[in-house]
User: Fold this.
Amino acid sequence: MIAPRFWARARPGLAARALAPLGALYGLATARRMARPGTRVDAPVICVGNYVVGGAGKTPTAIAVARLLQGAGERVAFLSRGYGGAPRAAPTRVDPHLHGALAVGDEPLLLARVAPCWVGVDRVAAAREAIADGASVLVLDDGLQNPALAKDYAIAVIDGEAGFGNGLCFPAGPLRAAPERQAPFVAAEVVIGGGPSPARAPGAAKPLFRARLEADAIVAAELIGRPVLAFAGIARPEKFYATLEGIGAIVAGRRRFPDHHVYDARDIAELAGVARRRGLTLVTTEKDYVRLAADQRADVRALPVTLRFEAPERVAASLREALASSRARRRPPSAVG
Assistant:
């Protein structure tokens, strides 16, 4: 879907106010669902989610968290619902050489480059498969509002520029539930970009980690001063356009598609034709790039981004503490002390 523009307005307009009662019911139902007890598995579960519908930078954050855990000697596995992929009855381990976005979704293909990634609607079953495969810690990409799998440490990712939009719940606004109703289930917040006073859940007495997204230096060097036609099927394509401008590319054209859009031959042929006629380089996000067929990629440049924590040592220390606490809870009483 493409997020309505009225979601981003600081003051709710007529459409938002008309939908607000429905949004209040949706938010209440989400908060109640989050309070349900989940199933614990035999490894710590680190959840990387957000308070809002759509993208805030969850996947880059999940990858950054996984790399910190790997640096501490952990055997990480990702869990993902595989949004946009084919329905499946059993969990599937993603093989980037075998699977495409239509089979497993776009984000799992990116995650599987870093660590084993299991996709499936049944998160508990996927977690048990990952543990049987040797994982010592699980990183759940999204799923903050899903109570099925008990979380040992939950991170809420916040877009520092978009914040909570108009402050209303879906469909009146972007929130899944009121932030103060979600905050009790969150251990830490990560704010990506934005100013010195980012949006946070009211009264959230929890660690705040600042981060930024950095474009791949090699690709960025190739795009400096080059006029580009940028296209993206992500929740906030404006972030992608701003990244391109930030590295010195000249964004001469923009094309927005719905989040997780499945590109067909006509889409890419049209974009490539416009780029050729205007002398532009066709560029997209890495997430969009993996949704393209092999023969569609020849005319397209992908711009990868990496999340960098401002104080990675603080994040690493918080994760270590969470893992130690989780493992102490799982230890048999006779083994304690």
